[in-house]
Amino acid sequence: MADTPTAPASPELDPRDFRNALGLFATGVTIVTTKTSDGEPIGLTCNSFSSVSLSPPLVLWSLSLRSPNLPNFLQATHFAINVLAHDQIPLSQRFAKPVPRKFEGIAHGFGAHGMPLLDGAAAQFECRTEARHYSGDHVIFIGQVLQYSYADRAPLGYFRGSYAAIQPVLQNS
Question: pTM for this structure?
Answer without folding.
Answer: 0.88
